[in-house]
Amino acid sequence: xxxxxxxxxxxxxHSCPAVYFLKAYADRxxxxxxxxxxxxxxxxxxxxxxxxxxxxxxxxxxxxSVYIWNVDRVxxxxxxxxxxxxxxxxxWAGGPEATWYPEPLLKDxxxxxLLGEGEKLFAELADRAGKRYREKTKAPAAETSMPADxxxxxxxxxxxxxLRGLAYLQNGKLVxxxxxxxxxxxxxxxxxxxxxxxSHRILYYExxxxxxxxxxYCLSGKEHGIRFRSPELVEEELQFFLDHQVPQVxxxxxxxxxxxxxxxxxxxxxxxxxxxxTNFHFEIEGDRITPEELDLLTTLRPxxxxxxxxxxxxxxxxxxxxxxxxxxxxxxxxxxxxIGTQNxxxxxxxxxxxxxxxxxxxxxxxxxxxxxxxxxxQLGFLKLLKGTELYxxxxxxxxxxxxxxxxxxxxxxxxxxxxxxxxxxxxDRVEEYVNTQGFRRSLPLAEKLFxxxxxxxxxxxxYYRENGYEQKQPSVFxxxxxxxxxxxxxxxxRDDISPEQLHELLETVRLDRFLHTxxxxxxxxxxxxxxxxxxxxxxxxxxxxSPVHGEAEVRVL
Length: 557
Prior knowledge:
By secondary structure, the chain is an alpha/beta fold.
């Protein structure tokens, strides 16, 4: 028999480690068990191609990995596969949406939902299914099809109330059998040995599970304790990536530096075995960085690692309400040191729509984080996930969210729908003008025209809307022209800006464009700039760009 584990990713460059974890663990536990195959699509693929592709593999069981970005597409697939195949194919679902929202998937036609960590449970179910299949068909385990009239008996046999971690419908009623026990991370085999399968894609790696925090908006806050993969095993597997010179590895640990000794050992290993090519991404707590860690991080090759720090808010009342700590002074100290070394690309995150965070408060949070000068400032919007504390307290906080995935907040007691919509438009401009790193020199000058950075992007968002650029989606090259026009528009009636200041600002925008874009796709370019120190002619080399901020290497002619 065949089990087909199916993932629908948000983009082609993504992969779904969950389905590979399941396959690797089940293959090791049951080497003579059913054939387990993995197939990945994206939510942007033509629907009919996905449906036909899945069924063309003639699986006996299809397992879907279900998240907020693909649940609608998965539910449609479940309904249509059930219509095409009747009871012939078993349909299983796992992942966060299946764990916390199993009933819609089951009513659509899924036979089982796997709740929580799936490796042990999936291996057990696959083993039981294989044995039941062989009993009913009296055929070798390698056979991949089964008579439909024998399906119902073996399908219903897997609905075992004593097997923890299942959800299913029994006589129309939802049955849950609890959550499975955690798996030993060392027992999950490394699944990246066949690297061509992941060509041109981000590779995800997990060295720990669990989170030390209980953030009320996050499902990880429901977990207790942290488990680690053995450091010797982690080093062996990281060396595989290094030996094969993969471009990027993203650690999916919830808080990578929760254990300083664990973080230090891995960062030291990467420093000592750096291949000069591979980049590693980590999500960390900025205020937990120790002086020893900071000293080490400043010695790393530019571009060896990048780090993401979730600040979420600078409002103390907001942070208390979500059980989040963020010692902004310490984060600012860490950022100052690391930004100064220019060797690590740094992301800071904010979340709009949290309790006690109105527009004025978010404006202050934005300014506080922006002033730390991260290379990327991610403006996220609260997703009200079932199973989280915020979901349970949504009425108390006046949190109103969409009923459909991704369950994004629409308004709260403190912020209106119109204000959140403004923040969405500002987020788009931040993505284009900050996170691309293409305006590193001109933005600090442009900020001086406004009360603060938030006001700059608020005005830029308004300019985009007034001139129809939101719909036109300007190219990277056009953004520089738009920014120049925007700045000239902002100063045209101001007496406090001299012609010399405006000239410097516009020349700096031109310099940014020169440093970040390839004229006619040439690999080098020459241009003269009239800057405050005098005229200077520069030669840029686009074959040599900074791995941290993307600027081309230049020399003065």
